[in-house]
Prior knowledge:
alpha/beta; 2 domains; about 20% strand; 5-stranded antiparallel beta sheet; TIM Barrel; 12 helices
Amino acid sequence: MPGPNLVIRAKQVVLPESIAPRSIHMTGDVVTSIESYDSIPEGCELIETDSDSVLMPGLVDTHVHVNEPGRTEWEGFATATRAAAAGGVTTLIDMPLNSIPPTTTVAGFKAKLRAVRGQCQVDVGFWGGVVPGNAGELAPLFELGVVGFKCFLIHSGVDEFPNVTEDDLQRAMPELTRLGAVLIVHAEVPGPMSRTGIPTCPSSVGEQTAGTDGNVCPTKYETFLATRPRAAENEAVELMIRLSREFGTRIHIVHHSSADALPMLRDAKTAGVKITAETCPHYLTFAAEEIPDGATEFKCCPPIRERQNREQLWQALGDETIDMIVSDHSPCPPEMKLRETGDFLQAWGGISSLQLRLPIVWTEALRRGFSIQDLARWLCSAPAGLVGLSDRKGFIKVGYDADLVIWNPEKQFTVHGDALHHRHKLTPYDGLVLNGVVEKTFLRGRKIYDGGEFIDEPQGLLLTQ
């Protein structure tokens, strides 16, 4: 076997079972050996980290709305994957909606693959979609390489990706079980929303809300929060647990926010139900009580809930009821956030944070006594496992892709929108001081980001095999 062409050594290397001084030897795309800190062969490139810096597996983000083709003015693969690389993300999985066409048919998937080629700074995989009437497309999409399938239990916000009913799931889930495919679920049902007496807002964008009466103030965050009650999530999670038991389908709850549903998730997992869950940085950072009037950059669905709810989500991460933290990067042109009117009921619901997931989560985790190894599980290994990539990504192991990030957990920085590489810069994190600066990112042994600079042409692969 040829010797390594690159060695990175660090005093703090995040390995599966420990953090230790090591030299990571790489040949081509993969890690070929993990050696003692002083083991440096002659004739290879050596990169040494500062003593405070950490060498960690490249982040995996399994919940990103890239929107190309069709809504590339919202975000596209070139800008999204640059933001990912700058945030230490080496693998992202694109959501099947907000692009036109959506990834619900073979034709739609092929259109997306044509659009994406040659643009990606990082490796990219794709979710397919389950919508009414497309059960016959599921097997062909899976054969073409989607990592699994997403559905909505409520209006998705875009008409070309309609939500499913329980009857639709009864038809689709046997096929998903046969394929061995995971179904990821936007777990809110409409019933509890219709009982609030407040005109409901779209999940994302799409239908406009009815006029509000004189007792409803659309610029108050509490008004919006009341339209998306916890019961909508709780009933949806209960439904998916029941259906997973019935059909044996592997279920994953996306962007979970309701602490009330945690006991049933915990009990279901203990009982062997094939269910996992994720949450997002915004649910772990912000609190409903602190969101200013008219600050529609904070709007997302499900909503950011109360302070006490937030702390229960952190506890659920600690006991592994919640398995991972993903961005749910869901951008739009700033004018769709309606900052000039501050109308929470009409504004687009989505938060941009793809570049910031590592420092956001580390800042909040550090305050609560969690470790860097916890961070690596939530941001790297657990998401890789969700999409079937745990045999090549999410860990620093021999034979794995040499996807790595060097970051300094001691350094702080202030978020400024103009320093973000997303297509649009509006984010609720603007002005926050965060811990954790990404210094260098490596994709399959190649440096793709270094201190604010992008290196070389896009090297990302399409993960369709």
